[in-house]
Amino acid sequence: MHQRLRLLKHQMKMLRPTSAKPPLSGKKRDTIIMFPPSDQQSLELHMLTMIQDLAASLLMEFEKWVLRAESTGTILKTPLDSQSSLGSEEVIKAKKRRLGRAQKIIGDYCLLPGSPVDANAHYTTAIELARLTGDVFWHAGALEGSVCALVRRGYESLEDQVGTWESRV
């Protein structure tokens, strides 16, 4: 208990703005983000910048996932597929289904950061490819994703309409 209080006291000292802070070195410099003591508006600006950097990093990571999903030639197999090892006929089927499944996954990755227009374009392609190859479960998944993208897109246009209505009032 005494150790916890000492640790808490030390952490509280770290939060207090002082001019005599020891310089950071090594790993700590990369892991600690400090905001200079200032007014609320400046702190909000610093926080906004940090959040925008985080969002940009997430979007770049999603982009890597999309590019990886497009370029890999692996067969996307799920538990719904046959449990036996793939025979030559099943390999041909799986290769035909791979492109539709990849398009569905790319649509999912586009929907995650909030890009329903791009997501719906990929889902539309996935729907057509899954229908042509008879991949019924992935067809259903692509349809579900497309509906989510359309609802999200409709929600954005609804927000725009509400904003327009509020400006008239």
Question: What report would you give on this structure?
Answer:
The chain is mostly helical and 169 residues long. It has a domain of 104 residues. Helix 5 packs antiparallel against helix 6. The longest helix has 33 residues. The radius of gyration is 25 Å and the shape is elongated.
Strand content: under 5%
Integer average pLDDT: 75
Low-confidence stretches: 7-19
Could you tell me the radius of gyration in angstroms? 25 Å
Q: Counting H and I runs of at least 4 residues, what is the number of helices?
A: 6
Tell me the span between the first and last alpha carbons.
58 Å
Q: State the shape.
A: elongated
Q: Count the strands?
A: 0
Structural class: mainly alpha
Largest sheet: none
The helix/strand series, from N terminus to C terminus, equals: HHHHHH
Q: Helix content range of the residues, please?
A: over 70%
Comma- or semicolon-separated keywords:
single chain, mainly alpha, 6 helices, 75% helix, elongated, Trs120_TRAPPC9, Trs120/TRAPPC9 N-terminal domain-containing protein, Trs120_TRAPPC9_N
List the SSEs and their pairings.
Elements: H1 2-15, H2 27-31, H3 40-71, H4 88-111, H5 116-133, H6 136-168
Gist of the model:
With 169 residues, the chain is mainly α.
